[in-house]
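Record copied across here:
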Amino acid sequence: MTLNLNVRGAILLAAAITGLAVLASPARADQCDDIAKQLGNGIDGLKVNFKAANIIYLTHPAAKELSLGCRAQGQTYSNELYAKGDRRPTPQFYDLVASAAAIIFTLPKDDTTTGTTRCLKRMGILRGDKVSMRYKRLNMECTRSKTDAAIAITRPKDE
């Protein structure tokens, strides 16, 4: 009888210690929210609007649309930056996309500037209105319509 009480007491004590350890551990913020906060602090004029289903919508005067997509269950990429601007992008747009990509994917800004510029400038008569390329382990897909040019930058999950 005393053996049963000691085992029960030990189990209750272990459960109480485990419960306290779970309650005492700090709350973890979402990694995507942390990246959005870094973007807001690191780029002048950029505002973090709202989050909806793993996508954080951002605004900046140089872009028509700007968003940060974070990985959900079953997706093949870790993060995605999507930016849409005028059909002929301005230098401010190139700088915005390069700065945001450098912060999100932790690469030097010079490398992200080179990649985004190459992708957006390759669209035209010879290559068409949709260009996909890979630069510095980033997948870049540039598209354009009659009024807009857009770029989506992702990094595969396994890299």
The helical segments are 2-24, 31-42, 91-105, 109-122. Strands lie at 47-52, 55-59, 65-70, 77-86, 130-135, 138-144, 148-156. The two ends are 58 Å apart (CA to CA).
